[in-house]
Give the backbone structure.
Amino acid sequence: MDRQKEINLSFAEKGVIFEDIHNAYIEEGVTIGSGTYIGPGVIIKGGTAIGKGCRFPQGGRIEGSEIGDGVTIDNSVVLESSIGDGTGIGPFAYVRPGSRIGGNVRIGDFVEIKNSTIGDGSKASHLTYVGDADLGQNVNLGCGVVFVNYDGREKHRSAVGDGAFIGCNVNIISPVHIGEGAYIAAGTTVTRDVPAGALAIARSEMVVKEGWTARKGYR
């Protein structure tokens, strides 16, 4: 019997559930709680500690991280970070080193988190980059939000207070502070602090030129 199968069988004896015990790579030194489901192609390395009742449906890599109870990580990469209880990651998310994600958080498809903290109950459902930022609890990040943390020479850090709502296609130019319960309108580029409870809008007024296509000969 090869060593990898021995490791996987030892986890199965402790209540870990494998879809295919021959198709999961788990290093020695990893700990996994009972009732956790491991799907095909999952890689777990670097002394990772995983709680009870987690789900890893398929693929992805977890390395050097602490994963709470009831966490789902689907086809995603988590490196040297911590994930709180009940949080869902992926599919196709990337959690880079130094990130601390709270409980009952939603990190969706094509979201990248780097060296950031995400408070309990916050959501970044798709197509978002959070780099060098500290988000409070119950923050909502819309599609296409980008924390612009690098000015070409140095990295800068931003903070978002509890309950803030960040609309779609928002650029946050670090370093700024967005207060508790603030709303950032879709399409805004944030270049200075936003007070708690305020609405920030920074976009050009829409102009409609009727009959333009006909005059240009496009139709």
Observations:
- Residues 83 and 101 are 5 Å apart (CA to CA).
- Residues 1-93 form a domain with the UDP N-Acetylglucosamine Acyltransferase; domain 1 fold (CATH 2.160.10.10).
- The first strand starts at residue 17 and ends at 18.
- Helices lie at 3-13, 212-216.
